[in-house]
Amino acid sequence: MMTTVNTTTERHNPLIEDFKRFYRDMKYGKAVDISDIYADNVIFVDPIHKLQGLDNLSAYLDHSLENVTECRFEFLDIIASDSIAYIKWRMHYHHPKISAQPQTLKGISHLHFDQKITFHEDVYDMGSMVYEHLPIIGRIIGYIKRRIARG
Question: CA 27, CA 4: separation in Å to the nearest integer?
Answer without folding.
Answer: 25
